[in-house]
Amino acid sequence: MNSSARFLPNGDTVMVVEFGEEIDLHTNRKVTALHAAVSALELASITDLVPTFRSLAIHYDPDIVPFAELEIELRAILPDLSSHSFSGRDWSIPACYDLDLSPDLQAVADSCSLSIEQVIRCHSGATYHVYMVGFLPGYPYLGDLAAEIALPRKITPSLRIPARSIAIAERMTAVYPIESPGGWHVIGRTPMRLFDETATPPALLAPGDRVRFSPVTRHEYDRLSKNDSGVDDAQPNKNPAT
């Protein structure tokens, strides 16, 4: 794994290790590999790790280790990142594309010159990589969305997007874990809870995981929504998604 990186200070207590300028799977895998490698070191000087699309933010205690020494220590593990590659989990997330739960589905189909059924097949037919979690607690950025249904963000954001809404924008798809304003196109909803502040960890998905959306009927969605014990105690698939 070619793991050239830039080590950048971000204030007095954060080091940002940046891999390249592009948002792509190859770059993001370097980030998740470094995340796994640094976590395995269990250094007392490191207080938190925050992976993003193309960088890893490392929060550290400068009273224990100065920036320059930490950089030397971390640069030494870059050539062996492939041995620390993180193997994420595989998830199947139920997705209801009923129009009552999908306020933008028809508009997406019209904009892409597709039928609603074609949009659903396109969205649910892919396996998505969790690039990062952010914006909202437990909000996963999933890619890469098929080019056939890739649209820019809305010109006018929605003031209220219900919790668990499935949305798309550009080459990404995501699930809003809580109610929020947002500029993505809502094309479905899941009964699965993606964030629980009482759980450890509170976010269901993590960078490096893989996700498929499994279409369910409105009847099945309503049943699963009422049966939180069957949805919220979700476990990753035993077999890898393909």
Q: Could you name the key traits of this structure?
A:
single chain, alpha+beta, Gyrase A, domain 2, Cyclophilin, 2 domains, seven-stranded mixed β-sheet
Task: Describe the fold and architecture.
The protein is elongated and about 55 Å long. The chain folds into two domains: 79 residues, 2-Layer Sandwich (Gyrase A, domain 2); 142 residues, Cyclophilin, CATH 2.40.100.10. By secondary structure, the protein is of the alpha+beta class.
Question: How would you concisely characterize the structure shown here?
Answer:
With 242 residues, the protein is of the alpha+beta class.
- The CATH architecture of the largest domain is Beta Barrel
Helix-and-strand structural type: alpha+beta
Overall mean confidence score, pLDDT: 92
Helix count, DSSP H or I runs of 4 or more residues: 6
Task: Write down the CATH topology of the largest domain.
Answer: Cyclophilin
CATH superfamily (homologous) name of the largest domain: Cyclophilin-like
What's the β-strand tally?
A: 13
Task: Extract low-pLDDT stretches.
Answer: 238-242
Strand order in space, largest sheet? 5-13-6-7-10-9-12
Q: Please bin the fraction of helical residues.
A: 10-25%
In CATH's first tier, which class of the largest domain applies?
Answer: Mainly Beta
Give the end-to-end Cα distance, rounded to a whole number of Å.
Answer: 23 Å
